Here is the input.
Amino acid sequence: MVDNEGLAPDNSTKRTRVQAREITFSKLVQGEMQFQVPLYQRTYSWERQQLQQLWDDVMELVDDRLEARPTAAHFLGSVVLAPERVAAGGIQRWLVVDGQQRLTTLMLAFVALRDRHRERKADKKAARIHDLLLVNGYQEGDDHYRLLPTQADRDAFIACVESSPKAGGPGNVGAAYRFFLDALAEGEESSGEAWTDAVETVLGNLLSIVAITAAEGDNVYRIFESINNTGVGLSQSDLLRNYLFMCLPNRGEQVYRTLWLPMQELLGPENLELLVWLDLVVAGNSRAKQSEIYRDQQKRLEPLSQDEAALQAEIAALAERAERLMRILEPEREPEPELRDVLERLSRWGGQTHYPLALYLLDLVDCGRCTAQEAAEALGYAESYMVRRLLAGLSTTGSNRVFMELPKELDKDGSPAQAVRRFLSRPKTGARVWPGDDALREAVRERPFYKAGRVNQRFQVLRRLEESYSASEPVDYTKARLTVEHVLPQTPAQQWLDMLAEEAEDRESPEELHALLVHTLGNLTLSGDNARLSNHPFRRKQEILDSSALRMNQRIAAEERWGKAQILARADELAERAVRLWPGPIENALHADDGWAGWKELRKALRAMPSGTWTTYGDIAALIGTHAISVGSHMRSAPGLHGAYRVLTADGRVAEGFRWTDDEQRGDPKALLEAEGVPFDAVGRAHRSHRLTAGDLATLLGKNDSDEWAPAQEPDDGQETAADRFTTQLRANQTQETVDGVLSALRFWEQQGGYRAYGKAAETSCFPTLEAGTALDARTLWPIAVYPVTGTVEVVLQHLKRRPPFDDEPMRRDLMARFNEIEGIELAEAKLDLRPSFPLEVFAAHGEELCAVLEWFVHVVALAEARRPLEDGPAES
Here is the structure.
C-alpha cells in the first residue's frame, strides 16, 4: 500500500489488492528502495516536446513560489508499482508496471540539478540530492541505484548518475539529461540561485503522482496489459458538457438543440476543446491548461450551477465565440478586408500563439468596443513580434504564455493596438524580448535565417518581402509551386569557392566565408525552379532568375556577380523593408540586453552536444551568425563555458590558444574527448565521423525542421524528371563503379517492395522508401538518403526515431551497427539521433553488403507491421 511517508508493501493477506494514494516524488523514492523497469517495458522515449511541456508546468509553479502566490501541486500522472520480496540487505524493490517515463524523467531532472549545484560549488545541496533521491548509499552493484531502467537504457542512465565521461551521450536518456542541464543553467543565469532552489522544491514536493500498488504475487504483466488496453476516454469538453447539462434539468433539451449541438457541429471535437480553453484565457485565466479545462471551467461556473438562465447565457456566449473562432481558423469568413488580411497571414504562420489575442479582439469588434482597423493594427504588432523574434533567432519558448496574458491588458480604456504594443515592449527577460530596428538590421545581415523557425514561417517572411515590391502582376501563391532557394548554393562547386576566395579576409577560408553567408536572408529567395537552379554558376542562375515573375529575383539577376558584397547589400535592403513591414517596439521601453544573443545561443549549443562529439569554431560561428575568430575570442574570455573543450579547429585539433577560463583546471581537452569516445589520429586530429556540423547543432537545439529532408516528388511537367536529374548528377560526379553500385542497390530495393522517392533540393537526392502502417495510420520510412553531387550517403536516424519500429532506440543502434560492419563506414554512436554519413563510393566495392542491410531493414519493418494488430502499445509506460 501507499502512505504519506512513502511506499511499504502490506503482505498480511494473499488477496489481490490494488491501492492508490497521491504522493510527491521525493516521498515516493525516499528510503532504501529501488524502482526496476521490467523487460517488457519499452525503452525511455520522451523527447524535447514532452520534456518542454513538463518544464513549462514546472516553471509556472516556480513563478508562483518566487512571487509568493498560493501554490497548488501539479498532477503529473500515475505510476503503477508491484512489490518484490525485500532483499536480504533490506532494500525494497518495486517493479514499475506503468509510469517509467515520468519516473525516469524526474530522476534525470534531479541528476542535472545535482550537477548544476556541483558546477556552482554548492556541494552540500548536490550531496543531498545524490544521497536521498538518486542512490542507495550502502548498497553495491545494481542495488546502488534508486531507479534501474530497462537494459537498453541502463548504461546511459548510470553514466549520468555516476557523472562518467559518457554522461549526456546519444539517445533519449542522454538528451533528457542535457535538456535539463541547459534549462537549469539558462534559468539560473537570468534569475539567480533562489530560482534554482525553487526548482528543486517544485520537482521534489509540488509534482503530484498517484502511486497505484498491486499486492505481492499479482500478475503484473496482466495489470500492464489492462492499463494499456483501455478505450478512448472522455475529452475535457465532453466532461464540461455533461456537467452543464446535469445542471440544466429543465432547459437542457432546448439548450442542447439550439445552442450546444450547432456549436459542436460547427467546430468539431478538436476545435470545441480549443474553444473551451480559449474561453478561459479570454476571461482572464492566463494560466489555464488545456489538460485541465474541465476543472477550471467547473470552478468558474459552480456559483451558477443552480441558475439555469445564467448557465444558458454562458452557453449562448460560448456559441457566439465559436463563430469568432471559425473566423480565426478560416480567415476567409472574416468580412472586413484589412482584418481578414492579417488573420490570413497569421494563419499561414501556423500555430495557436495568436489565438487568445485574436479571439478577444474579435469580441471587442463584434460588441462595438473597437473597429476592425484597430483590431488589425493590434494583430499586426503581434505578427511583428513573432517575425522579428524569428529573424533575430530567438526561441519561441514562452511565447504562448505572453499572448495568454494579453487579453487582461486589453480590458482597459484606450487603443487596443497601443495596449498590445506597450505590453510587448515592456522590459523583461526571456520570452518577452521584441527586437528593435537596429537589432533587426544586424540579425538580417548575420543570422542564419534558413535555420530559424519552421519551413512555412521562413516562406511567409520571404513572401511578405516579395509582396512589398507591389508588382503590377502579383504572384498567385495558391498556384505557384515556390520554395525557399539559396542563390549561393549550399553545396558550392569549385567555381563558387574560387570566387569566395577572392573576398575572404585574413585567415578566413572560402569554406568558412561560405558557411557565414549561405543561410543568411540576403542569400535566400523564392523560386519555382529549385531543381533547375541547382548549384549552377551564377551566370546560369541569372538567366533563370531574370525570367521569374518575382521582383526580388529580377533584382538578383541584375547583379554582375554574387558574392559577399552583393549578399550583404541585399540583406541591408531587405532589412529596411522588414523594418517598415513589421513595426517594432516602443524604443524607450526596450529591454537592455546584457550581451549579444548569439553568445547565449553558443552556450546552449555547447550544452546540447552529446558526449563523444566535437565541433569547430567555424560551425559555431555559422550557427549563431558571426565569425570563427570572434567565437574563439569570446570563448577565451567567457568564464565557465560548459563543454568548451569540444570546440576544435577546422582540422580537428585542440586550438593552440585554448585555456580553461575558470579557476579549476579540468585536464587536457584531448584526453577528455578520448575518455568520451572520440578517436584521434597520430598527429592529434579528432576523427571527422564524430564532428557535429552547424546543421547538427541546429537539430540538437530543435531548430531544424525534419521535413526539410523529406522526399517530395515533384510533378512531372513534361521536362526532365527528378529521377532523370538524379541519374544525370550521379553519372556526372561519381565513378562508373560507384554509379553501377548505387543503381544496382536501388533496383534491389525495388525488388524488396520499396520504391524511390526524390527530394526537391538543388542536388536531387534519392530516398529508398517503404510504405508502412494502415490507411488510417499510413507512414513512410527510408533508411538512407543518397546525395550524388557531394558523394555522401546519410543514415537518417533523426527521421527514423519518430517512426516505428525504429522509434525504439535499440533498433536504431542495431541498424547503425550493421552499417558499421561494412568496410569504409564508420558511424559514430554519438550521432544516434542525427544523420551520420558515409562516402557514396562504398557502393562500388561493398554493394552486396549494403543490400544485405537494406534487406534487413525491409524485414524488420514487415515483421513489426505483422505484429502491430496483435499489440496495444503502452500509452505512457
